[in-house]
User: Which sequence fits this backbone?
């Protein structure tokens, strides 16, 4: 129907940002946990590139992640800094940078959706 | 569970773990001078805390839990205090193995981590209200 499926794209990005925020929250909460490896979500470009083939969780007993998380892989991120005696790879500064990135992208995302929505309302109301 | 709610839950578990750590630090500091009561008895032994990451099955986030609260096995320093009730036959008293400087450093670190978790909660809340604002008619 539309040349650019903007609402779908925007809600997918919002989903992805929410999953990333939750990954950052996990890293910050575990900043003092011995042996913990910091996680990150795969880049959004990759999510767009690949066709989404994933197992659907159709019953509450199914193992795995919540429905919205199923499409985004959360992986341990590469680490090239100094290895601490506790083998924890969380760098608090990096996590706060990521949180800032998520915030800015989310602001942009909601602003775009708002603008697009008002355009559609303009078209329908005349 | 929605991922932003999961982020809130994870950060809240971080707050809980750090405040538990602060409790252990305050126990150690409060008992930094607690000697035994019988001659030659052991004084207060320093407590340590360790955390473990736990996968939350309903949201996929990694919560943090208190793994265990253990006792520090390091030896007790001795002080010469013949008048103390815990003094042995040569007049030496075993003091608790608490180093106040170490406890202070631990307290500051717990404080910083608590602040970082609070920041995450604030931000997740802001993201949620940004989403709700989409429904506001302009």
Assistant:
């Amino acid at each position: 129907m539309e040349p650019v499926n903007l609402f779908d794209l925007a809600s997918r990005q919002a989903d992805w940002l929410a999953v990333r925020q939750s990954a950052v929250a996990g890293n910050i909460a575990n900043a003092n946990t011995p042996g913990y490896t910091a996680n990150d979500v795969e880049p959004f470009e990759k999510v767009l590139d690949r066709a989404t083939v994933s197992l659907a969780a159709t019953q509450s007993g199914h193992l795995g992640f919540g429905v919205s998380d199923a499409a985004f892989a959360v992986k341990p991120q590469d680490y090239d800094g100094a290895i601490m005696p506790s083998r924890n790879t969380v760098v608090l500064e990096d996590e706060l940078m990521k949180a800032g990135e998520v915030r800015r992208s989310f602001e942009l995302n909601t602003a775009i959706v708002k603008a697009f929505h008002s355009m559609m309302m303009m078209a329908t109301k005349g | 569970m929605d991922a932003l709610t999961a982020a809130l839950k994870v950060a809240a578990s971080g707050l809980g773990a750090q405040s538990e750590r602060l409790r252990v630090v305050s126990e150690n500091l409060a008992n930094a001078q607690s000697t035994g009561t019988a001659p030659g008895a052991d004084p207060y032994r320093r407590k340590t805390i360790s955390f473990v990451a736990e996968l939350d099955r309903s949201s996929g986030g990694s919560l943090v839990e208190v793994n265990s609260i253990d006792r520090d096995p390091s030896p007790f320093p001795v002080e010469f205090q013949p008048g103390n009730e815990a003094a042995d036959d040569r007049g030496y008293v075993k003091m608790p193995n608490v180093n106040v400087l170490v406890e202070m450093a631990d307290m500051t670190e717990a404080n910083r981590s608590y602040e970082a978790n609070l920041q995450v909660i604030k931000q997740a809340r802001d993201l949620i209200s940004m989403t709700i604002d989409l429904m506001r008619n302009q």
